[in-house]
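Form 7-S
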Amino acid sequence: MATRELAVTKERRYIVRIELYGLPGSEKADRKIYDELHEEMEKEGFERTVVLNDVEKKLPPAEYRTVTNNEAEDDADLEDVMARAKKAAKEAHPHYRIGVWLYSLGRYYNLEKA
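Output:
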């Protein structure tokens, strides 16, 4: 009987923060660009909410989260998350800054209900 090797997967949780700069400056135009960013981030598997004590809450502005579950090494997985965030940001606006953090524990305070 042949043995099967099982792939080892590892769940990782990430927080991503994106700042767009060089925006038109009007509230309506800026909001439209951020709305496009939110749509593109969602397409790439990022969320803007978190469930705390069975209640869905909004993350702070410009913050997203995602969970991966694959065989990649930590650095490669981090680069994949960054690449997906960059792809989404680039679709929304040409000027952006991004931070990506891998986390195991976190706390939020005073978030709005989604």
